[in-house]
Specification:
Strand content: 15-25%
Structural class: alpha/beta
Distance between the termini: 30 Å
Number of domains: 5
């Protein structure tokens, strides 16, 4: 598509400014036609008739049959007003339709200004689709695509991308709806012109991105055929005032501040206390007993010594320039103390106290933000449990220190979820690089943390619980920079909330919060977890699994029933069961009994000794055509759980030592001994779960989704 010219953009700008100056929230049909013409969006030939005679003359010039539509700034839902006629085939019919349309409109809204009736060329037949844009409060302008006409309201088969969309984005949208097969041609119908349809999506998305005052664009229906595309109806809604721009920080600014937050050499605790049961005492105790090797400076005007450390009356008295000030004082005292932190030149404030926006005290929180911006202080919180930086032995929280260092960074917006994250990590002994509470997100949020974790050599996987995003585009940019290096897992709360806002078009009504989140998080390469358990398991397992090198997955199982369930899970998670070639089938059959089954799944049967498990696993790892293994173990006396676990771990370890790294996941069915076997396997690089065939394959599917998003498959 050729770029829109400055002249075309200027024409649209003048048109929009004129409508906004009149206080209007929608463009008329002729104005919409002028906008689409400027952006090369194909629409039918049309003209405005102010009388029945003029309507007849225009219809004769355009060519019968024609469509006729009321033109009124106050009437945006023309069909509801009885203001539409299609297939009008003669001069007499045009006269009658003109009179009826105007009469219906006046009945529908007696105060509406009637500018005339639009005479429009009838659109060639084709598949009806919808293309539109909506301004999402989190992500800004997004473009939507789906089936059009009445089907869009019934099926809600719509997909979304950030605007402006690229050609690749647009092509992925064509394949992203459930009815994608219709576009490819069914029952002898020719396929639609995919390039033309994708090009139209790109043009509409560019229009929305160029003009933030456009709240919604709705092209419905668009008729798509082998011969091209044409939008039969255009509706453009305008926004009132633009949202205030959020202050943004550059990447180097974020990294400089985050480096001092996550790797501090000096920490001040404002509100430190000797009194057990107070947050200030817990924070001090955790910093000291957690082994933090840097300087710890308690600040309390009523104490000389706290936990063996010299206490200071004010943060201004603390020697040097601490990297972080941790607040453990009541909300009403925070602004004054934050002023001192700013004057002291401390770059980070960790605000544990509650009593701010979450309780309706928005002005108090806004005051904190203003103070922080004035002095160049970044704020974490308020209303959080604190944060851990485990490799620094830094426990700046009222929870107890976490002692298992590893590669998983965990963040949560909710304190309660944060406690669940912590408990899960302890129970499973998940290796953690950081655990961070975000709370009210007055300043620091997920995109700041992602920018840091992308660079942090200790972090291999990032898992985030979030209820909202302050700046969806900044998050997407940070995620896109992180995903090629390491997986990002997100649990977005509110998935089933009634998120569809009142809107004046099909596109707006369909853009419920979660529908937009789902598609755009996927566009960013993020792995979306359906629940808390999945988020935590993905975070624990993804660093354990090697990156797959191809799509061929093979199941080796000791029980036919588990093989069937594992096969179902493979399909459910978008994975591919390998078609076993004859030579590989013959090789597997050499190790399994005659009443077993090769193919895929490979069923070695439950009575086989450890040697059969070992031989078939070895074969699966040796053959380069196999890219991942799913093991289904069935508890037997012949091969007890720990025997299976030890032989599997040994074989996998041998191959990894030789440079052969393939993802291996296992489902163990049996009595309670399988729990210990799963723990052993996990510790030795095999992701294993007891009593479930779904979970190990879900984790494998998540690894594959990340590998695809990262461009590694």
């Amino acid at each position: 598509m050729a770029d829109t010219t400055e002249e075309s953009r200027a024409a649209v700008r003048a048109l929009l400014d004129g409508a906004l100056a009149q206080g209007r929230t929608a463009l008329t049909a002729p104005e919409g036609k002028a906008v689409t013409d400027a952006y090369g969006i194909p629409t039918p030939a049309e003209a405005l008739a102010e009388s029945a005679d003029e309507a007849v003359a225009l219809a004769d010039r355009i060519g019968f049959p024609v469509a006729m539509k009321i033109v009124s700034p106050e009437i945006t839902h023309k069909t509801e007003a009885g203001g539409v006629r299609v297939g009008v085939a003669s001069a007499a019919e045009v006269r009658g339709a003109f009179t009826a349309i105007v009469a219906n409109a006046r009945t529908y809204d007696p105060d509406a200004r009637i500018l005339g009736v639009q005479i429009q060329q009838m659109v060639p037949a084709g598949t009806e689709v919808l293309i539109g844009t909506v301004t999402d409060p989190t992500f800004g302008p997004v473009v939507a695509f789906g089936l059009g006409g009445v089907l869009v309201e019934v099926l809600k088969d719509v997909t979304f991308r950030l605007a402006p969309a690229t050609e690749d984005d647009a092509l992925s949208m064509l394949d992203g709806i459930r009815a994608a097969e219709i576009l490819r041609g069914v029952r002898g119908a020719p396929p639609v012109d995919r390039d033309a349809l994708a090009g139209l999506i790109v043009k509409v998305s560019r229009l929305a991105a160029d003009f933030p005052e456009i709240a919604e664009v709705d092209l419905n229906p668009v008729f798509a055929s082998a011969g091209g595309v044409m939008a039969a109806d255009v509706r453009i809604l305008l926004a009132g005032e633009r949202p205030a721009a959020r202050r943004r920080y550059g990447r180097e600014e974020i990294l400089a501040s985050m480096r001092r937050l996550m790797k501090p050499t000096s920490v001040a605790v404002i509100g430190a206390s000797n009194e057990a049961g107070k947050i200030g005492n817990s924070v001090m105790r955790n910093l000291v007993e957690g082994g933090f090797s840097g300087d710890i400076h308690p600040v309390n005007p009523k104490a000389d010594d706290i936990l063996g450390r010299k206490a200071y009356k004010s943060v201004m008295d603390v020697p040097g320039e601490p990297d972080v000030a941790v607040f453990a004082i009541p909300a009403r005292f925070v602004p004054a103390a934050l002023e001192e932190v700013g004057r002291k030149g401390i770059p980070n404030a960790v605000l544990i106290p509650s009593g701010f926006a979450e309780t309706g005290e928005h002005a108090l929180q806004e005051r904190l933000v203003a103070i922080a911006e004035e002095h160049g202080v970044r704020l974490l919180g308020p209303n959080i449990y604190g944060y851990y930086s485990t490799w620094q032995d830094l426990c700046a929280t009222f929870c107890t220190p976490y002692d298992v260092k590893g590669g998983v960074a965990l963040t949560s917006q909710s304190g309660g979820i944060g406690m669940a994250v912590l408990g899960f990590a302890r129970t499973t002994r998940t290796g953690v690089s950081a655990i961070v509470g975000l709370g009210n997100k007055s300043d620091l949020d997920e995109d700041d943390l992602l920018t840091w974790f992308a660079e942090d050599e200790r972090t291999e996987c990032v898992a985030m619980h979030l209820e909202d995003l302050k700046d969806g585009r900044a998050f997407v940019a940070a995620a896109r920079a992180t995903v090629p290096r390491k997986p990002v897992v997100v649990l977005k709360a509110g998935r089933t909330a009634a998120g569809a806002r009142a809107a004046g078009s099909h596109t707006g009504a369909l853009a419920g919060d979660d529908a937009v989140y789902d598609d755009i998080l996927r566009q960013a390469g993020v792995i979306r977890a359906p629940g808390l358990g999945e988020m935590l398991e993905y975070a624990r397992a993804l660093p354990v699994l090697p990156t797959p090198r191809g799509d061929n997955v093979v199941i080796i199982t000791g029980a036919g029933g588990s093989g069937v369930l594992l096969s179902d899970a493979i399909v459910d998670n978008g994975l591919t069961l390998m078609e076993i070639p004859p030579d590989l089938d013959e090789a597997f059959r050499a190790f399994i009994p005659p009443f077993g089954a090769a193919g895929n799944p490979v069923d070695i049967t439950g009575g086989e000794p450890p040697a059969t498990y070992e031989a078939t696993i070895r074969l699966g790892l040796e053959d380069p055509r196999i890219h991942a293994l799913v093991l289904g173990y069935w508890h037997t006396i012949v091969t007890p759980p720990m025997v299976f676990a030890e032989l599997t771990a040994r074989v996998v370890g041998e191959f990894r030592a030789r440079g052969v790294e393939k993802p291996v996941v296992a489902s163990l069915a049996g009595d309670v001994e399988v729990e210990e076997a799963c723990r052993y396997l996990f510790d030795h690089g095999v992701v294993a779960y007891p009593y479930t065939t779904e979970r190990p394959v879900e984790v494998l599917g998540a690894k594959y989704r990340w590998a695809r998003a990262a461009g590694l498959l």
